[in-house]
Amino acid sequence: MELWPGAWTALLLLVLLLLSTLWFCSPCAKYFFKMAFYNGWILFLAILAIPVCAVRGRNVENMKILRLLLLHIKYLYGIRVEVRGAQHFPPTQPYVVVSNHQSSLDLLGMMEVLPDRCVPIAKRELLWAGSAGLACWLAGVIFIDRKRTGDAISVMSEVAQTLLTQDVRVWVFPEGTRNHNGSMLPFKRGAFHLAVQAQVPIVPIVMSSYQDFYCKKERRFTSGRCHVRVLPPVPTEGLRPDDVPALADRVRHSMLTIFREISTDGLGGGDCLKRPGGAGEARL
Ligand SMILES: CCCCC/C=C\C/C=C\CCCCCCCC(=O)SCCNC(=O)CCNC(=O)[C@H](O)C(C)(C)COP(=O)(O)OP(=O)(O)OC[C@H]1O[C@@H](n2cnc3c(N)ncnc32)[C@H](O)[C@@H]1OP(=O)(O)O
Ligand SMILES: CCCCCCCC/C=C\CCCCCCCC(=O)OC[C@@H](O)COP(=O)(O)O
Question: Which InterPro entries match (predicted)?
Answer without folding.
Answer: AGP_acyltrans, Plipid/glycerol_acylTrfase
